[in-house]
Write a structure and sequence with these properties.
With 362 residues, the chain is mostly beta strands. The protein contains one helix and 32 strands.
Length: 362
């Protein structure tokens, strides 16, 4: 994964010390390029005023996150001091759509169906784009283009500069998850039970094949394989070369959906389940270990230096050794944590359903 980070940095897609989008990079691997110092302790918290379901982005020494209040919030990473608030939604708020930061602009969608581009320094609007359904997908920026899914069933490609529609690809159901991107192709595993590959240059579908289940999670790409959980209680490996499902994993005893998006690191796939457990598989789909929490897990893991950090609806954030599945750290947040952690600048940041943004460091 260090090689992946280095390649992304060289391509200008990932800045050192940043976690600029949902899952950290366009391949959605959920792996940080740096180690967190230890022991972790709470450095600051910020009261957003309502639930934080959005996962934070970290870029340029600042944290960006959406809240159900409808505000896109920017805080200083070191101190937690408010930099600015931008009112995105006046009605339904910002849900799970997580900000992406690129070229001095922050992008995020809201539950009113509006997609926003905001100046990262000032919090002033640059442009907006209206879709016809709520936005829970998170944006991915690739050079001069930004991709976003909507509950109107479409994946949109817009100009970063002015929000002009470059193309729109219509699926047969909600586009809930975030597209994973590699080699000029966007991959979505959708609510229409199809896995699709869509060319970013022109929006042409290169191929699709049945995934076999309703999918709310986002795919993680490693080499030519995509890994994603679904509502048929499975984690699926899709081969991007053969365009077929390579294998399916289902726990032998506990049959619950996977809403969490997987992290892929060091030959292991780590994902949270609504069965209250974190599951770790090898690349063949063999179960290596599980870690038990006290409630369902919708948060997606972020991995740093061999430790997977993940929230649970039991009100805790856990640090789990990737090799052994042993707990190495725990924090009692006091409220469900469905927001996925972000790791950058020596800090771990995550939001809670009681509206607090929490920042941890040594």
């Amino acid at each position: 994964m260090r090689l992946v980070a280095a390649l992304l940095f060289a391509a200008g897609l990932l800045q050192a010390q940043d976690w600029p989008q949902f899952r950290g990079n366009p391949m959605l691997t959920g792996v940080a390029s740096e180690a967190l110092g230890k022991p972790l302790k709470l450095l600051w918290s910020y009261e957003a005023g309502d639930a934080i379901e959005s996962s934070p982005a970290i870029a340029g020494g600042a944290v960006f996150v959406g809240a159900v209040t409808g505000d896109l919030i920017s805080l200083d990473l070191a101190t937690g001091k408010l930099r600015w608030k931008y009112r995105a939604s006046k009605e339904l708020g910002i849900g799970e759509s997580s900000p992406a930061v690129s070229g001095g602009t922050v992008f995020v969608g809201d539950l009113d169906g509006m997609f926003h581009a905001v100046d990262a320094q000032t919090g002033k609007a640059r442009w907006t784009f209206k879709t016809m359904g709520e936005i829970k997908s998170s944006p991915v920026v690739i050079e001069d283009r930004v991709l976003i899914g909507s509950y109107d069933g479409a994946l949109y490609c817009l100009s970063v500069r002015d929000g002009k529609l470059l193309w729109k690809f219509q699926t047969e159901n909600y586009v809930h998850g975030t597209p994973a991107v590699a080699g000029g192709v966007a991959y979505i595993s959708g609510c229409d039970e199809h896995f699709r590959a869509i060319r970013i240059s022109d929006g042409v579908e290169l191929y699709s094949f049945p995934s076999g289940a309703y999918t709310g999670a986002s795919p993680a790409l490693a080499g030519t394989i995509a890994y994603v959980g679904n509502f048929n209680n499975e984690v699926v490996a899709a081969d991007l070369k053969t365009r077929k499902v390579l294998w399916r994993y289902e726990h032998p005893d506990r049959h619950f959906p996977f809403y969490s998006s997987a992290a892929v690191t060091a030959g292991r796939i780590i994902v949270g389940g609504r069965d209250k457990m974190v599951h770790c598989l090898d690349l063949s789909g063999k179960l290596l270990w599980t870690f038990q929490t006290r409630a369902r897990i919708d948060s997606s893991p972020a991995v740093s230096a061999g430790v997977a950090y993940i929230g649970s609806n039991d009100g805790r954030i856990y640090g789990i050794d990737v090799k052994t599945g042993a707990k190495v750290w725990e924090y009692e947040a006091g409220s469900a944590v469905s927001s996925s952690p972000a790791i950058a600048g020596g800090r771990l940041v995550a939001g809670s359903i009681d509206g607090r943004l929490l920042c941890f460091g040594p």
